[in-house]
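Dear colleagues,

For the upcoming journal club I promised to circulate an example of a predicted protein-ligand complex. I picked one with zinc ion because it came up in last month's discussion. The inputs are reproduced below in full, followed by the predicted structure.
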Amino acid sequence: MLLAKAGIRVPIKLTIPLISLLVFPACLFAQQTNPPAQETPPSGGAQVPGQAPASAPLPDHPQPAEAAKKPPVHRFWDETNCWLFAGVLGARYLDFASTLNARRRGLNEVLLNNEVVDNHAEFAAIEFGGTITSVGVSYLFHRTGHHSLERWTSIIHIGVTTFGAVRNFCLKTPHPATEP
Ligand SMILES: [Zn+2]
């Protein structure tokens, strides 16, 4: 979050790492839900020698119409999205940590307000909500077939949030004028 000058000291509590436990299991779960290996269908029964297998099914030949029905669309929780969402969560954590760091150095929150930011649980919930919203927007793009925008949502989110966090860390600490 954006910060400016002021003078309140706040103890730091890092609550964000806990929320990462909520997102990563989804990725792990998604990796385990790969379609199971195709079971070879049972052969059409023992063939009697000399009998023509005209009525036997042909399981080894895929139906061309069935293959044409399914375009190659990636799963939403594929590896790329899992990495991008982890990146969004990491960027949000950087924003959380940099904001609390700046507050400890006496800077004021501008985008939200100091009361919200100083309530670490509430601030962590806001950061996590931003991550969930980003994933939700990506999902809407995925469902509507905009797979490039789906990826860019996370990429832009990571870029903007990381830039803000670096800016927070780079803000100068205000020092009161000291008597000589
Ligand atoms: Zn997609």
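Two points we might discuss: The pocket of zinc ion is lined by residues 74, 142, 147, 150 (CB under 6 Å). The CA atoms of residues 101 and 175 lie 16 Å apart.

See you all on Thursday,
B. R.
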